[in-house]
Amino acid sequence: MRILITNDDGISAPGLVVAEEIAREIAGPDGEVWVVAPAFEQSGVGHCVSYIRPMRIEPLGERRFAVEGSPADCVLAAVCDILAETPPDLVLSGVNRGHNVAEDTLYSGTIGGAMEGALHGFRSIALSQYFGAPRPDMDLFGAAREHGAKVIRRLVDGAGWSKAGYHVFYNVNFPAVPPGEVLGVRATVQGSRPGPTFGTQPQTSPNGRRYLWLKHGHGNAGAAPGSDARECYEGYVTVTPLSADLTVRDQIAPLAEALG
User: Fold this and answer.
1) Do 96 and 122 touch, CB atoms closer than 8 A?
2) Cα 141 to Cα 96: distance, rounded to the nearest angstrom
3) Which of 13, 94, 148, 221 is the most core-located residue (most Cβ within 10 A)?
4) Which residues contact 254 (CB under 8 A, 6 or more apart)?
5) Distance between alpha carbon 31 and the CA centroid of its chain, in Å?
6) 8 annotated ligand-binding residue
7) What is the chain's alpha carbon radius of gyration, rounded to the nearest angstrom?
8) What mean pLDDT is reported for the chain?
9) For the structural domain made of 2-192+221-259, what CATH number should be given?
10) Mean pLDDT over residues 230-256, rounded?
11) 191-220: buried (b, 16+ CB within 10 Å) or exposed (e) per residue?
């Protein structure tokens, strides 16, 4: 199996090391693991692409490249150039430092990388590790490291992978508990948390200029049971099927009637 890895935390991120460990276990001794990741952190860029500027590609070693661009750019660079003649069997995006659940999925570069893979018809999975309030002696990526390969194998071997229209891809989130305390794996819907996702925190710099920092809104405990936000918060690995299709289908008929 040939596996392509990207992320949004950058080529030097510790979660990328975990993703490589997972990918090597899945690919096996005869497989290939390729890393094409952003040269710098790209958190929060969503499915952004560098449409109005070129992106530099820097080879860093065998099957390892840094791209001055977004995670979606990295997937494009991989499947259209680096691996154009030998396309991947699987695209992994992550492991992200922090969860990508509920409204986070709309902002996440990790999700954007997996979405781009799905748009090209490749089986694609986003991987994120929830941190919560970690214990001092806890391996922050322990749950992902221990359970990642098993979950991915289940998806590759048994999950649905649509072949028409917008292809499905999967969003996997690992809970903020040690590996042995993970409660299980659950299929979930994309959640919705009460209140706004982000707010702003103003700050004045030493030279008197005013800046705004973004800060997260409410936590995951208020999300509905069965959602990715709530179940990951409770200690489960969550798996949510997603696609790039944003159509609200049950509103088509009412809309047509309203439009006459």
Assistant:
1) no
2) 9
3) 94
4) none
5) 23
6) yes
7) 19
8) 96
9) 3.40.1210.10
10) 97
11) bebeeeeeeeeeeeeeeeeeeeeeeeeeeb
Give the start-end residues of each E strand in the chain.
Answer: 2-6, 32-38, 57-61, 64-67, 90-97, 124-129, 169-174, 185-187, 198-204, 210-216, 237-242
Lowest mean pLDDT among 60-74, 158-172, 224-238: 158-172
- 243 marked among binding-site residues: no
9 assigned ligand-binding residue: yes
* Rounded distance between C-alpha atoms, residue 73 and residue 15, angstroms: 19
The annotation status of 73 as a binding-site residue, yes or no, is: no
Total count of residues recorded for the chain: 260
Joined tokens for residue 67: 């791209």
Q: Are 143 and 86 in contact (CB under 8 A)?
A: no
Sole residue written with tokens 């902002």: 107
One-letter amino acid of 251: Q
User: Which tens digits make up the pLDDT trace of 181-211?
Assistant: 999 999 999 999 988 888 899 999 999 999 9
- The pLDDT tens digits of the residues spanning 78-115 come to 999 999 999 999 999 999 999 999 999 999 999 999 99
Roughly how many angstroms between the first and final C-alpha of the chain, as a whole number? 53
Identify the band that residue 22 occupies on the pLDDT scale cut at 50, 70 and 90. Answer: very high
Enumerate the domain spans of the chain. 2-192+221-259
CA distances from residue 107 to 46, 111, 242 in whole angstroms, order as listed: 4, 8, 14
